[in-house]
Design goal:
single chain; mainly alpha; 9 helices
Length: 214
């Protein structure tokens, strides 16, 4: 009788866990494609909030924390492009604990290190003259760790290419070298397979855009 009760309880827990997992995956699958297409500040805020709601419900899953942080960082990057620099740091303050939680849950992950690179670059660009020696170096280190963890990650070459393309030549930049890195990113994307339907796959549209530039 005790054994039957134990089997019944175990079966119920496994079924409940499976149902929760299915619900989680479906919720994520509905949102993840928008990461690569959403550009407006309001759209990124709504997307980040949606990922945070999932993160709060699925506290052991690193991906919703990762995507929520990515949305805030992408939004901050948009404000950098429009030179609304006073809006960058507040968004990074929101992204930082989300990124830290993702890393706490998933150690030694190339995608998370790419996001750390983006975070540190964003912090630096809000005040490059005063922050290069700290956040600039941290960004470069994070990218190298990302490469070491997965040299086939196309986002490593995309991020490196963006740096090389937009950095002035007197500081080591080169548009031609940047284009070579975008070409390498494209090669990586052609064979890249994400670990699942909800793992990071963003960046291909950006690579295609950069390859059209002179």
């Amino acid at each position: 009788m005790k054994r039957s009760f134990f089997v019944l309880c175990t079966s119920f827990m496994l079924t409940t866990s499976f149902a929760q997992s299915e619900k989680y995956i479906k919720a994520m699958e509905a949102l993840v494609p928008a990461v690569d297409t959403t550009r407006s500040p309001d759209g990124l805020t709504q997307l980040a909030n949606s990922f945070e709601r999932i993160a709060n419900a699925e506290k052991t899953m690193w991906l919703p924390f990762y995507y929520a942080a990515l949305c805030h960082i992408n939004k901050a990057n948009g404000y950098f492009q429009t030179q609304e620099l006073d809006k960058v740091d507040p968004l990074m303050d929101i992204a930082e604990p989300l990124l830290a939680k993702a890393e706490e849950l998933e150690k030694n992950n190339s995608e998370i290190m790419c996001l750390k690179k983006m975070f540190n670059t964003g912090k630096m660009m809000a005040d490059p003259m005063n922050r290069f020696m700290t956040f600039g170096q941290s960004a470069a280190q994070a990218l190298e760790v990302a490469r070491g963890l997965n040299p086939d990650n196309p986002r490593v070459y995309l991020l490196e290419g963006i740096d090389k393309y937009y950095t002035p030549e007197q500081y080591g930049g080169s548009k031609s070298e940047g284009k070579k890195l975008f070409e390498e990113a494209m090669k990586k994307f052609e064979v890249f397979k994400p670990a699942s339907s909800i793992h990071p796959s963003w960046g291909l549209s950006q690579v295609k855009y950069f390859l059209t530039l002179e």
